[in-house]
Amino acid sequence: MQQNTSQPTGNFSHYIQQRLSKIERRDWELWILALAMVMILAIGYFFVIFPAVFFGEHTLYIQAKLSSPLLVGQLALVLLFLFYIAHKHVEVRRLRTQSVVEALNFQLSHTQLMLDPLTRAFNRTALEEVLGKEIKRVQRKQATLVFLYIDVDNLKVVNSRFGHLSGDLVLSEVGAILKSCVRGSDYVVRMGGDEFLVALIDTDMSGALVVKNRINERCEQWNQNSPLSGFQLNMSIGVEEFDGTRSFDEVLGAADGKMYAEKEAHMAARKSS
């Protein structure tokens, strides 16, 4: 499973970190310049008042002869320096804000690339990124992870009888049902067509069966107000636990096999009725 993005997340994060580091350095350079200016002024005043302090004079007399152009020039230099510092500080703030906005926009576009536009579930290209870290966590910490491999029964009948728009409606409703039956920490992935994968984080088999029953109950509730006359929404669900002893593909294949066994049982039950 390859990540189908225009720029890897890790590379972009490294780029943003480097850019923010450069901005922070520029910010520090401005503070150093300001501090240097203050130190120069302080040293100048120090040399002016040092003789009086050294000789213990209680009254300080300062007499200076400055031409008007020189005085105006000094004031202009100080004002220009202050203006330069203020301008650069505003520029640094603008660059920092721009970097943050770019990072947020990239994260948003990256997330959109991983979402199925019809069901708003993750798409298949997101499998490696969204589940890879969870699989590694299970292998490292011996945590629990259970997969539900799900297939929507008779979706082809909906497409042929009611049209593809109605089929899209059913898929979008399925995505909403699945997401409503799991927690925010779980993942719902559309594998393609009418197949979905649900990853239940830190859940054992008994908890997964609870979720499976909840999905079936939501399907029954949807059927009570079905907009498609004569169609009953039903899902075949295969449940398999990932314990780190098998590969992801092996566990997925086992869940897929259980899902097809349940689908065949559903078909046999409909034929007998």
User: Superfamily at the CATH H level of the largest domain?
Assistant: Reverse transcriptase/Diguanylate cyclase domain
- Strands of the largest sheet, in order across it? 2-3-1-4
* CATH class type of the largest domain: Alpha Beta
Overall geometric form: elongated
Element order, helices and strands? HHHEHHEEHEH
Q: Using the coordinates shown, work out and report the CATH topology of the largest domain.
A: Alpha-Beta Plaits
Fraction of residues in helix: 55-70%
Low-confidence stretches: 1-9
What Rg is obtained from the alpha carbons, in whole angstroms? 34 Å
Overall mean pLDDT: 78
The CATH architecture of the largest domain can be named as 2-Layer Sandwich
Total domain modules = 2
Report the biggest beta sheet as strand number plus sense, adding barrel if it closes: 4 strands, antiparallel
Total DSSP E strands: 4
Structural class: alpha+beta
- How much β-strand is present in the residues? 5-15%
Number of helices, where a helix is a run of at least 4 consecutive DSSP H or I residues:
7
